[in-house]
Design a protein that fits this description.
Blueprint: E1 6-10, H1 14-25, E2 30-34, H2 37-49, E3 56-59, H3 68-91, H4 96-103, H5 106-117, E4 130-135, E5 143-144, E6 147-148, E7 164-171, E8 174-181, H6 189-206
Parallel strand pairs: 1-2, 1-3, 4-7
Antiparallel strand pairs: 5-6, 7-8
Helix pairs in contact: 2-3
Amino acid sequence: MLTRTRALVVDDNATNRLILREMLTSRGAEVSEAEDGPQGLALLERAQLSGQPFNLLLLDCRMPGMDGFQVAERIKAIADANSVAKQHSSAISATLLQDWSQFAAPAVFGLAMRAYARTRLTKSRPVHNLVISNVPGPQVPLYFLGSEVKAMYPLGPIFHGSGLNITVMSLTGKLDIGIIACPELLPDLWELADDFAVGMEELLLATR
């Protein structure tokens, strides 16, 4: 039996897809279909991002454009790249950004921004005017004078040409969001902050 099995059938022949669907569903599998290689790769990626990856893949070896062998090679290349990325991520300490912030004092950043403001670069349109960043925070409870710290709201910098900074910081499995803006460019931050809850609901609905 294939109960709880999520299967993907990639075949350019509709009759073959129908036969395979009937065989798999009769054994309890949940079946999705793709009529060519690129569509199959897109479904695989979407399933992976949604947290419900396929655990059975059936490929037609003789599809036009991208055959089954090429699809398999592409999947292997993606898997290898993800493995390397995970290795690099695990090699970087979660406190790296915290350690760097202690080493590079805010005064250094302020001096750099003041020097930039005196150059001719400020007369041209900025490359970006929004900064979004995330900082990995401590994953163990913190205490201050005997009281547990429930939230940590980061304060990211804004500088010439960049009027909005959104920084996310983690703390014991939760995410806290800090928003700072130039009042001349974005006078009402509460409206933006209130929309975060709406945006999160939309993201959750999109993953279902």
